[in-house]
Amino acid sequence: MKRAVIILALLTFGTPAGAQIVKQSAPSQHAVTPADMDKRLEEQVADTKRIAPRAARIALVDFAWPMSQEEYRATAKFVVVLVVALSQQEQELPLKRLYVQAGGRIILLRKIASERRTVPDGSEVATVLGRFREDSFYLAPAGAMMRKGDLLIDFAVNRTGFRVYELPGTPPDFARADRNPNPARGAKPDSKALRAMIEREYTGFKLPDLR
User: pLDDT at position 8, please?
Assistant: First the structure.
């Protein structure tokens, strides 16, 4: 299973024109837990403070490819995307949409789960990155994630076109070899296979209702 881990985008206060900064890491092979994401948010506080006193909003994005050709077929050629978004303003969440923009086209990703959280008052994460948090899961067509383009977020208010990842991703060999990596029209993942994939790759997160 190939994964892109910790892609950070933040809109900072105290920098020219509120500059957006995007940070991408190399692919990894391990599962992601809520504790992992909490730790990365804590680590990001120090990085942000070197740039500006605080961020207006941030997003951490992680996506997981199916681990085998059998799972790729069972999940109908979809990639699972986790977004952890924080904002200083409660009205910016939940996210309005997550989408791929490539070759002049916009491909909307389907949200399958969302959980709102409030970051504890007084913590550095709340002060620097934002008190209001949403953890959400999306399904992305494999073909869209293999094109040259951008993965973008529209917040509920104030900010659209917030770039969180520069595509293409790094697909496994069986997906790269697929001449048509786009899901069939109207295709839906097998709920049992998708649930097993999310449980394996995102251990400890609230699972979507896949009935």
Answer: 56
